[in-house]
Specification:
Layout lengths: L9 H4 L7 H11 L3 H20 L3 H17 L3 H9 L5 H14 L2 H13 L4 H15 L2 H9 L9 H13 L3 H14 L4 H13 L3 H12 L6 H13 L3 H14 L4 H33 L10 H9 L5 H5 L3 H5 L6 H13 L6 H4 L1 H16 L12 H9 L5 H5 L3 H6 L4 H13 L21
Helix pairs in contact: 3-4, 4-5, 4-6, 5-6, 6-7, 7-8, 8-9, 8-10, 9-10, 10-11, 11-12, 12-13, 13-14, 14-15, 14-16, 15-16
Length: 455
């Protein structure tokens, strides 16, 4: 097998008479390793589309249709790929990849039919049997799936996919510790086995062990081809820890390969909105620290008795008071001279302040202060402004709840029926309470926003 697609022309690799699943898996690994190789694949797909329209020989047209279907599946155009592969499903390799398409589309009965058709004429029985077991498990036939996988216990005990599939079956049956052991065994055999890395990450994610989940997801995204759900799930975890730049990178990476991925588009917008909120939070923290400094009492500093007495008579108690008075104002006060003035300037300079500072910036801060006050006191419009955790926010968006009006028109029972977890509902109630709002009451059927927010 060549070391890179670039070293061997795609036309050579994609000869129908020698085409195998091994070759297709190899191509899939290579074409996502660089932008150039992906562009080569896109060009090949375009040429196949044109070729099918021009060719007159029936067998040649079927060859091109087979290749086009497989390549469309390879880049994620599953529905379109299935339409091409249906036309040539009598060929064993077409039946196999049509089965993969059906599996991804959730049509498990047709997927099983295709895999069985491929298995009857295929010597690589283990691989297809694992696909059959996986499909049965996805369909809910966990015991049947486990039986198939276990039938290979002796012959494939050193195969990472065997341990991965066995782990998935045990997971589905609630035997989580045993499942975890098999995922680990899979990774001992093949440390970069993508399916097991993702499953470990996903399970740690579900269990709330974010650090471990991030560790495994990060290993996943380094592989080619990368798992798009690994990028999305990792992005959500990055958001939870405030790493919004990293989250944006994850979502944008998915969109580079799949421009209209709805989850990536939604989460990217949310992450960018959160970046603005995070920035505001940092500003708020900075302003809080500045406020602490300005509130330091004058009595905390060593000043001459004359200076202290003068300041007391002028009702100047804190550093903030000093920033609101000018040199001229101080010097105009009886008994306040240059020596006292220099003392005051010195203690202010130590804190990065100066006399008259607040007076000079009044025109600038007045507008900002008004906007800030309005923003704090106005009724918030979207759930992004509510300060919910990323996972809670995404759960609401997923069920179509994006505004505060949408949210407060729902009862706790209605949220539960939409699949919102109880811990998220508790979080929502807490956040709404902080801004003086509540979910709709079952008794009166009204929300606190009725008649206040308009569409």
């Amino acid at each position: 097998m060549p070391t890179a697609v670039a070293d061997t022309d795609l036309d050579t690799l994609l000869k129908v008479e020698t085409l195998s699943r091994e070759t297709i898996n190899y191509i899939k690994e290579q074409v996502f390793s660089s932008k150039e190789t992906r562009e080569d694949l896109d060009a090949k797909i375009a040429s196949l589309r044109i070729g099918i329209k021009k060719v007159h020989d029936v067998n040649e047209a079927k060859d091109l249709t087979l290749l086009l279907g497989i390549l469309e599946w390879m880049i994620g155009n599953v529905k379109e790929a299935s339409e091409f592969l249906k036309e040539v499903k009598s060929r064993k390799i077409a039946a196999y990849y049509l089965g993969k398409c059906y599996q991804e589309l959730g049509d498990y009965d047709h997927a099983l039919e295709c895999f069985e058709r491929a298995k009857k004429t295929d010597t690589e029985e283990f691989d297809i049997c694992m696909d059959i077991a996986e499909t049965k498990r996805l369909k809910g036939n966990n015991e049947d799936a486990l039986k198939i996988v276990k039938s290979f216990s002796h012959s494939h005990e050193n195969n990472p996919d065997f341990h991965y599939q066995l782990g998935c079956c045990l997971d589905a049956l609630g035997e989580y510790d045993d499942a975890h052991s098999h995922y680990e065994q899979s990774l001992r055999i093949a440390p970069n086995y993508a399916k097991s890395l993702f499953r470990m990450a996903f399970n740690y994610d579900l269990g709330g062990e974010d650090e471990k989940a991030i560790e495994y997801y990060e290993q996943c995204i380094k592989l080619c081809p990368s798992h798009k759900n690994a990028f999305i799930n990792l992005g959500i975890l990055y958001e939870d820890e405030g790493s919004f730049d990293d989250a944006v990178y994850c979502y944008e990476t998915v969109l580079e390969a799949e421009q209209n991925n709805p989850r990536a588009l939604l989460f990217l917008k949310d992450a960018k909105d959160s970046m603005g909120m995070y920035y505001d939070e940092e500003i708020s923290k900075k302003q809080g620290k500045e406020s602490e400094v300005l509130n330091i009492p004058i009595s905390d500093f060593e000043l001459s008795v004359r200076s202290k007495n003068c300041l007391e008579r002028m009702n100047i108690r804190t550093l903030r008071d000093l920033t609101r008075i000018t040199e001229v104002d101080l010097l105009s006060f009886k008994n306040f001279g240059e020596t006292s003035l220099n003392e005051i300037k010195f203690i202010l300079s130590q804190k990065g302040l100066r006399l008259g500072q607040a007076v000079e910036s009044d025109s600038e801060t007045e507008g900002f202060g008004n906007d800030h006050t309005e923003r704090k006191t106005s009724i918030i419009q979207t759930i992004s402004e509510l300060g919910l955790s990323t996972r809670c926010r995404n759960a609401l968006i997923k069920v179509g709840i994006e505004t505060i009006k949408d949210l407060t028109e729902k009862t706790e029972i209605e949220l539960d029926q939409k699949g919102i977890k109880q811990n998220y509902i508790d979080e929502i109630c807490d956040r709404l309470s902080e801004v003086g709002l509540v979910l709709k009451n079952v008794d009166n059927g009204k929300s606190d926003l009725d008649g206040i927010i308009t569409e």
